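Note to self: keep these together.
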Amino acid sequence: MTLALRLAAKGQGKTSPNPMVGALVVKNGRIVGRGYHQGPGQPHAEILALNQAGPRARGATLYVTLEPCCHLRKRTPPCVPAVRQSGVRQVVVAMTDPNPMVKGRGIAALRRAAITVTTGLAQEEAAQLNRAYVHWVTTGHPYVILKAGMTLDGKVATAKGESRWITGPRARQAAHRLRTQVDAVVVGVGTVLRDNPALTARLSARPRKLAPRQPLRVVLDSRLRTPLTATVCTKQDRAKTLIATTSRASRARRRPLERAGVEVVSLSTKNGRVSLPALMRLLGKRGITSVLIEGGSTVNAAALREKLVNHVLFYLAPTLMGGQDAKAVIGDCSPKRLAQALPLRHLTVRRIGTDLAVEGDL
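Structure:
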C-alpha cells in the first residue's frame, strides 16, 4: 500500500477536483500491474493497473488507495464493474471514499460479487494525501492553506510596505511548488497595488519557466481598485483571474476588467469587505478543492477570524525587524487573553535554505 500511495502522489496538482489514487495488482508476491490517476477525464488508477496486468489479474490482489467508484456521474466509466470482470480475488482498500455517491457502495458491490475486501490499511496516510479532496466533498468548501514569509519576529513588511525579499530563494521556490499543487491563490487588492505580483506557479526562475497547470488567481477587491495594468490583468494567457468585489464597486470600472478577460463577481460583504465565507462557497461550487491564501495581514486575520484556515505554513527568515509600526503577519486587534490564541496541531519545523518552514493544522 505504501507503493500505491507513492504512485497516487504522482498526481499531485493534476487530478482536482478528483482525488489522487494509486493502484497495484499483485500476484504470487509480484507486481503485475500498476497505475495512478493522472487527471480529470483520464482513466482511473484501478483501470490502468488492471489493463497492465491483463489476464494475470485473475486470482490476484488489487491494492488501491481509495474505494473504487460505482456511480455514473462522471466522465469515465465506474471502476467496480471492471474490477469484478478482471477476476481479482481480493481488493485491499486504504480508505473509503467520503463522496456521498460512493461512500461504501463500491466496497459493498465488490463483496456482493464474492470478492474479499479489506479496508483500513494505511488509512491515515491515504486521508492525509487527499485531505483537500476529503474536506471539499464533506464541507463544500475548499481546503485552505495560509502561507506567509516573515522575519523571526513575525513581520511581513516594513512600516513603508517593503517586503521583497524577506525570505531566501529556496523558500520562494518552495512557495512556487505549492502553487502548482493548489487550485486557487487568494490575495487582497493591497498586495496587488503594492507588489504587482504575477501569482503564477513557476518551475524555474532562470530560464523563466511556468508550470503547465496554473492556479486560478483570486483578488479580494471590494471597490475594484485593481488597475488594468496589473500583471494579474494583463497576463490572462498564462493564468485566469477572478476579482471578488461588492455592490459598492463602480460598474464603469468593472467593464474594462471584463473586456480584458478578467472575471468579476459581486459577493456579499462583511465589515465592509468581501465576505470570505461567501467566496469560499462560490469556489467550492466551482470545483475548487484547495486554496492558498497569500494575502497581507488584513486578509490573513479575516480568514483566521472566520475559521476558514485548515493549514498554516510560515517561512521564517533569520532576521529581526522590530517596531510596532512594521506589518505583522496577522493584522487587526490581538485577543485579550492568551486562551484565545489559536493552537496548531501536528506541528513540523524544517530547514529550507537559510530559512525555517513551520507548519501545522488548525
